[in-house]
TrEMBL record:
Species per Swiss-Prot/TrEMBL record: Orbilia oligospora (Nematode-trapping fungus)
UniProt-recorded name of the protein: CID domain-containing protein
The organism's place on the tree of life at top rank: Eukaryota
Compartmental location: Periplasm
Domain CID: residue ranges: 26-178
Amino acid sequence: MAASHGTAIAKAALSASLLRADPTPIPGDEIARLHSLLDKCLTICTPENIKTCKHWLLEHLVQSSHRVTAFGKYLVALSSSLKSQSADGMTPSSRRRRLYILYLLNDTIHHTTFYSSPPVPFGNGVEQFLKDLFGLAQDPTRKKQRARLENLLSIWSTKGYFSEAKISSWKDEIGKSFLESTEPQEAISVSKDVKSKEQQVLLPALHGDPTAPYHDLPATTMLPLMRPNSPTPINTRSVKPIAMKAGPPSKQLSEAVDVFIKSVDKMWYGGDMRMLSDVDELGVDIIKSSDTQDEDFLDDPMGARNKEEGYYGWSRGFAIQMTKRQKGELGKQKDSSREQHFSTPLHLAQIHSYYQDLNVTFHPFPSGTGHMIQSLRSHDIDVAIGLTEGWVAGIKGSMKADWYKVIGQYVDSPLCWAISAGASGDTTVEGLKDGGKVGVSRIGSGSYIMSFVLARQKGWIAPTGQKEPFDFVVLDNFKNLRDAVNDGTADVFMWEHFTSKKFYDSGEIKRIGEIYTPWPSWLITAHDSLLQVNDARLGAFLDGVNRGIAHFRENVEESTKWITSNLEYSDEDAREWRKGVKFVDDVRKVDLGMVENVVEILKEAGVVEKGETADGVVVNIES
């Protein structure tokens, strides 16, 4: 990234402030890492890059007013020095990179306002620089740019980060800039994606390869053979390529193809990747759309959504539409679970109509139990199934959630967490006795809590838990954790065994041990409004789950095939998992002693305050 003379001075001033003992000096390699993280944010503004840079600021900068001031001055100088580099079609334009600076500040202000205890006045420290940053981010030729800036200020107004007078003055400045717009100089040097003349295109004679087998033909070749509500399967011999009318395509078709091609190009476009994939602690695919960074912003709990589209078959939108048509919209009992191998009995119950007249719709939550808790709060779902420690922490922890209760126990066996280290290292579990760097997805997560369970079982901490047993390194996601143990950022991390197994098989990481949760791994919860009126649908749902579990036990081949067909597990892994998992005989029976044990472990981890008990967590549903 090229830097002007003023930028170099501001960068040196920032480095000097970081080297001072305010409160502790920052090593030179960490300062270099800050600039590397910032460069990544401005080149590829993804949720992961923004959050990683934000965590660096939270750890090293936001507590010092002098460092915040130096950082603000550096951002203004950096924003001023940015020149358009979009001529190569790969680097984001200067206006986008200036916008990304504001997005980084937005996330950091949000975190220091709502999640730091006590709140850190980071917003007050950078307020004096925001007028210049908004001014530099303006582009009178871009209406979308103006909309993004005004949308950002509207969110700040709603959240109350700054005074209304200050926000109004920034909005006026943006509006004034667009009113006084002149011919932009930068636009002259930027190549435009405009065709000098329309290319002559013709439709092919056939849609599909006549030499290809039916299963490799486009899905649309089945459309002429489909009959509404017909139980008769399609004769595969009748699936043939579709003859096309000769001549140029319609305008609508040409535009649709252009949009598709641009979306593919954008997928690999350095400044704005379309989709970022990862897996969570239980092997669930997480698809995070980077488009949310413009509209929803990165700290939105809905930021991680499964928007994945397969290349073959029907689109998700079409499948959802067909499901709604078949099942209708009224009287639905909405259920949420983290979609992976543990959900097999739930789906078997649906396939075999064990829910009877109850219309159940499953909504996987790849973003985790915390997201399910918020969805229960907004009553987007009625029932949710997730990790035991997450539900108990939601009710008894800092959130003090009173909008749901535990109504059932789903699994009777503990969850196996594998302990992983770098592929070429010599780290052992016993080597962690005197402390070590343990990677976790976030503070309070399962990977964080299980480190306390490990230390407690090994006798490395006192029962009262006076201090943390390890140095925790927050790394957000599974990929970052794998990278961290290989580059030395962390010594070990803990993750669900079957999710980690394929990375052991490939040699990317090494398995050095395992630990089981000292409690059954899954509980069933329900929204409080259903419990208040003793909704009969809850009992019907629990009965259906019991029958699904019984079917799972009695039909080994069917349940194994469902796992391998729908969840991308090998037959060997699916059968191995079946051997270790034990579902309950009756989901209505919740072990209160188990809940009390979870509360005690969460106290040691600092997730639940001392003095809390298990009272008020469980509500019994009568048969």
